[in-house]
Amino acid sequence: MTLRTIDTLGPLAGKRVVVRCDLNVPLQNAVITDDGRVRASVPTLEALVGQGARVIVVSHLGRPDGAPDPKYSLAPIAARLGELLDAPVGFAADTVGTDAAAKVAALGDGEVLVLENLRFNPGETSKNEAERTAFAGELAAFADAVVSDGFGVVHRKQASVFELEELRPSAAGLLIADELEVLDRLTESPERPYTVVLGGSKVSDKLGVIAHLLPRVDTLLIGGGMLFTFLAAQGHKVGSSLLEEDQIETVRGYLAEATERGVSIVLPTDVVVASAFSAEAEHVVTASDAIEQTPFGASGLGLDIGPDTAAVFAEHIRGSKTVFWNGPMGVFELAPFAAGTLTVAEALTAVDGLSVVGGGDSAAAVRQLGFSDDQFGHISTGGGASLEFLEGKKLPGLEVLGWQ
Ligand SMILES: Nc1ncnc2c1ncn2[C@@H]1O[C@H](COP(=O)(O)OP(=O)(O)O)[C@@H](O)[C@H]1O
Ligand SMILES: O=C(OP(=O)(O)O)[C@H](O)COP(=O)(O)O
Question: Which of the ligands is closest to the CA of residue 23?
């Protein structure tokens, strides 16, 4: 079965349509540093506004703890959406409370309202299905129909991504359809050599993907926060760098399996180690088996891949016909630790084949480092979502829309 599209919902003029977007953008002091995901949400919202639907936008932002936290308010994102739509966009200070109910009731045809962060409500991400269904029911009370367009979150079985879509007539938005068109090419018949580059900080989420990618790819390049669990698996000390100790054995298994399958997992030979997590911190380049031998000893933090590693990664990337990259190579937000990400991004722009960058922060990184979207084959709004799609997994937020 293929995705149900918006037209399967019938005429939407005057109907209340809840649209699940992924507006989880990077913010610094409530200022959006990359609005890519907001822009990517616009075509579907414009299409619904154009039909005269009453559009109610819902999204998460960050990982708040199931309770309101002003740091994660969607208010600045609602304002940006208004600029991009060039129309007034309302904002409710809660998700399913009295303010939301009043503003939904007052919404006119062709108007847009953004509700406050879904994850301020424990039911959104609850592990308990009944709790998720109860929260989805509260959202469904606002909806005659649901459009799901938050590609970045379709791998999460969360109330607004799965249970809500079961409770009302639902369909996929234009962004999800676009994303699947490109990513499907990567699962069906990627031109070889096929290289996947992994980094970022959601280490435990993404390590699990590796087992499923090994049968599909020729080369895996490992940078970012996850590289330290690999170094630890090889018996090296990693100072105070990000480390998933309980994954070390699993990672040893990946290394052994890669050897058996003839897949090369390329690990950094040098890293940038800093005295603290700050742009002003002292930092040095060191061999990746000597992280604790810098002046910072065991408190040293690995915050980027080193220049030798970056050059080796770039060579692998340029020699590939298909490259998928998720997760910055280092803490690119701090200038001294952006070089590895810059080198890898540059190499992707030189791929003679299909290059895909996936993930909110990875997309933000390439734009912040001065690249334009058209220098890559595709920039996906989903990091974890596209990785899990590439590993061939059935994603709850897609299955509920008819995708098989
Ligand atoms: N060595 C590292 N230590 C800590 N954080 C890192 C490291 N390398 C990269 N990061 C961080 O990873 C974050 C992005 O990770 P992630 O959310 O997994 O990527 P994406 O959003 O592209 O899927 C960035 O904010 C970056 O600072
Ligand atoms: O940023 C996101 O994913 P990504 O970092 O894998 O691209 C999505 O908004 C999902 O967020 P989550 O990983 O907190 O569920």
Answer: 2
The answer, yes or no, to whether any atom of ligand 1 lies below 6 A from the CB of 150, is no
Domain 189-390 is of which CATH architecture?
Answer: 3-Layer(aba) Sandwich (3.40)
pTM: 0.95
Ligand 2 atom closest to the Cα of residue 158 is 15
Question: Model confidence over 289-333: pLDDT tens digits?
Answer: 999 999 999 999 999 999 999 999 999 999 999 999 999 999 999
Q: What are phi and psi of 275, to 5 degrees?
A: -80, -20
Q: Kindly state if the Cβ of 360 falls inside 6 Å of ligand 2.
A: yes
* 22 pocket-lining for ligand 2 (C-beta < 6 Å): yes
pLDDT for 309 equals 98
6-178 — its CATH code?
Answer: 3.40.50.1260
Is the pLDDT score of 1 beyond 70? no
Type of residue at 74: L
What DSSP string describes 111-153? -EEE-S-GGGSHHHH-S-HHHHHHHHHHHHTT-SEEEE--GGG
Give domain limits for the chain: 6-178, 189-390
Which atom of ligand 1 lies nearest, measured to the CA of 241? 3
pLDDT of residue 369: 97
Residues acting as catalytic residues:
37, 202, 360, 384
What would the mean pLDDT of 62-91 be, rounded to a whole number? 98
Same fold, 6-178 and 189-390: yes
ipTM of this complex: 0.97
